[in-house]
């Protein structure tokens, strides 16, 4: 039993070592030169810059859309303000007209009316 267990462990270690070396030889690890590292960094930097530019464009478009919405809302508020101003002007005109009528009524009330003292009423003759 011990013998079988030891042989299984040895077989497992051998198989894993063989698999490791096979994978290692499939992809030879190549050391990059300084120039290659610089070129790779430039490529990554260019890709990063493009993604950042795209994000900035999307943000600018979103901001522009939001500005248009706000502008449309403020224009509708301008219409509302114009209507309020018209209503105020009409109200002021009405008050001015009422004050004018009130003043005329007060002037008429202060005038003395002369009623003739000789108010003889003649009887109406019927036929």
From TrEMBL:
UniProt keywords, alphabetically: Signal
Cleavable signal peptide: 1-19
Bias type Polar residues, positions: 98-113
Biased composition (Basic and acidic residues): 34-45, 55-70, 83-96
Name of the protein described by the UniProt record: Uncharacterized protein
Region (Disordered) residue spans: 34-127
Record bears the keyword Signal: yes
Superkingdom assignment: Bacteria
């Amino acid at each position: 039993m011990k013998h079988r267990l030891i042989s299984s462990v040895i077989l497992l270690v051998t198989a894993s070592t063989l698999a490791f070396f096979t994978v290692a030889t499939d992809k030879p690890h190549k050391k990059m030169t300084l120039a290659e590292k610089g070129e790779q960094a430039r490529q990554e930097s260019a890709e990063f810059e493009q993604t950042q530019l795209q994000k900035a464009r999307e943000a600018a478009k979103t901001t522009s859309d939001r500005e248009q919405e706000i502008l449309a809302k403020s224009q509708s508020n301008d219409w509302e303000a114009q209507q309020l101003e018209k209503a105020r002007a009409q109200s002021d005109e009405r008050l001015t007209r009422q004050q004018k009528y009130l003043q005329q009524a007060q002037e008429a009330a202060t005038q003395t009316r002369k009623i003739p003292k000789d108010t003889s009423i003649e009887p109406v003759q019927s036929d």
